[in-house]
């Protein structure tokens, strides 16, 4: 009887271990683990970035740190380094294209310097923190215990990986819209800091110097969902419209309208 009991206990142990392996394996495929717990969490992140993935497994990979993959060699859990590599290149191109189209007044040197201010850990990590990326990450025990969810390098890398996932899922138009929506304020601030120029102030000073009325700004359009709003603003001197601008924020649209007005006035 004792031998039979030991045999049954051994069989039970083997079955239990097989069950646990299956749970870990399929749980990892569904994004279950230290950070991401279910599809609802990923849906929340999709809402944050303003894009719903057709292939959500790409997003799970983007949120899987190498330390987690290393600690689970028997689990199908690829890490995010390849998507991070792709996202870094995509982010660089999208920011370059946005700056080129939106700010024709910037020289090549200024374009390069503004881009460098935007595409770096110091800019991306706070954005990753605001999106709550740390809470979505799958981390190994060592990285978890050392505060990996708050590490700027991990947050910046994860954000780039997420952008790489969006690009693979929806192409350049999809990821460009996400990048523009997420970085609109930082782009505007970086450009102003680089130029040392506030076009609204310059326009006001220009009109005052010529004896004209103070400029006023009128919102013409506000289109798109809350996370991807686009504004069109017109600036007036008295009753005359002297410039129109478009931007992801009202402030950016006003600055662009003032810039167009200055061009029209020959300033």
Write a structural description.
With 267 residues, the protein is mainly α. It has 2 domains: 181 residues, Ribonuclease iii, N-terminal Endonuclease Domain, Chain A, CATH 1.10.1520.10; 67 residues, Double Stranded RNA Binding Domain, CATH 3.30.160. Helices cover 64% and strands 9% of the residues. It is built from 11 helices and 3 strands; from the N terminus they run ααααααααααβββα. A 3-stranded antiparallel beta sheet has the order 1-2-3. Strand 2 and strand 3 form a beta hairpin. Helix 3 crosses helix 9, helix 5 packs across helix 6 and helix 7 packs across helix 9. The longest helix is centred in the middle third of the chain and has 44 residues. It is elongated. The termini are far apart. The N terminus is likely disordered.
Write a brief caption for the model.
The protein is built from eleven helices and three strands, in the order H-H-H-H-H-H-H-H-H-H-E-E-E-H. The protein is mainly α and 267 residues long. It has two domains: 181 residues, Ribonuclease III domain (Ribonuclease iii, N-terminal Endonuclease Domain, Chain A); 67 residues, 2-Layer Sandwich (Double Stranded RNA Binding Domain).
Strand content: 5-15%
Number of helices: 11
**Low-confidence blocks of residues:** 1-10, 12-40
Largest sheet: 3 strands, antiparallel
* Oligomerization category of the chains in this entry: single chain
Pattern of helices and strands: HHHHHHHHHHEEEH
Question: Please, what is the average pLDDT?
Answer: 82
How helix-rich are the residues, as a percent range?
A: 55-70%
Number of strands: 3
CATH topology (fold) name of the largest domain? Ribonuclease iii, N-terminal Endonuclease Domain, Chain A
What is the level 1 CATH name of the largest domain? Mainly Alpha
Q: What is the number of independent domains?
A: 2
Shape: elongated
CATH superfamily of the largest domain: Ribonuclease III domain
Amino-to-carboxy terminus distance: 99 Å
């Amino acid at each position: 009887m004792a031998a039979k009991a030991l045999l049954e206990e051994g069989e039970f142990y083997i079955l239990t271990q097989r069950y646990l392996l299956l749970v870990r394996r399929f749980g990892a495929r569904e994004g279950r683990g230290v950070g991401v717990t279910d599809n609802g969490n990923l849906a929340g992140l999709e809402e944050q970035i303003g894009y719903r993935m057709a292939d959500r497994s790409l997003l799970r990979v983007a949120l899987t740190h190498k330390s987690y993959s290393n600690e689970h060699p028997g689990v199908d859990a690829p890490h995010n380094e390849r998507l991070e590599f792709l996202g870094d290149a995509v982010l660089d191109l999208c920011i370059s294209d946005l700056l080129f189209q939106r700010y024709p007044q910037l020289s090549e040197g200024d374009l390069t310097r503004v881009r460098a201010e935007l595409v770096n850990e110091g800019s991306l990590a706070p954005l990753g923190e605001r999106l709550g990326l740390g809470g979505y990450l799958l981390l190994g025990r060592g990285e978890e215990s050392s505060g990996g969810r708050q590490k700027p390098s991990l947050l910046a890398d994860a954000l780039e990986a997420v952008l790489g996932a969006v690009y693979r899922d929806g192409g350049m138009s999809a990821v460009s819209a996400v990048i523009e929506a997420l970085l609109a304020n930082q782009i505007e601030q970086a450009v102003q800091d680089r130029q040392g120029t506030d076009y609204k102030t310059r326009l006001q000073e220009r009109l005052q110097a010529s004896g004209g009325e103070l400029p006023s700004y009128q919102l013409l359009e506000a289109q798109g969902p809350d996370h991807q709003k686009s504004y069109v603003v017109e600036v007036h001197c008295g009753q005359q419209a002297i410039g129109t601008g478009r931007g992801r924020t009202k402030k950016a649209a006003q600055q662009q309208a003032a810039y167009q007005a200055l061009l029209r006035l020959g300033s």
